Each structure stands twice: as structure tokens, then as C-alpha cells.
Amino acid sequence: MAALAWLLIPLVAAIGASLWGTWALRTRRARGDGPELVGYARFREAMERSTTTTSVPGS
Asked: For residue 8, what are the contacts with CB-CB under 8 A and spacing of at least 6?
């Protein structure tokens, strides 16, 4: 009977992992990459602006 209890531990862990994986993929698919790409584009624009308008001190 103790051997069956030890076999249940990985079984419960596998079921829990599959449920978590399903949930994680569901939320990622619903969101998409749109907000991340827009944020990255704004970051790139800000970095390009900061390098072009920087003046050299002492000149």
C-alpha cells in the first residue's frame, strides 16, 4: 500500500503541471504580442530621441 502512495505523488504532480500549463497557455494566447510590441516601439523611439538630442558637456 505504501508503494501505491509513492506512485500517487508523481501522478498528482503531473496532473497539476498539465493543468498549470493549460492555464498558462490560455492566458498567453488571449493577450497576444500587441502590447509588448507597442511598448518596444515606444522604447526604441525614446532611445533614438535621447541619443540625437544629447549635447556634449563643455563645448
From this structure: none
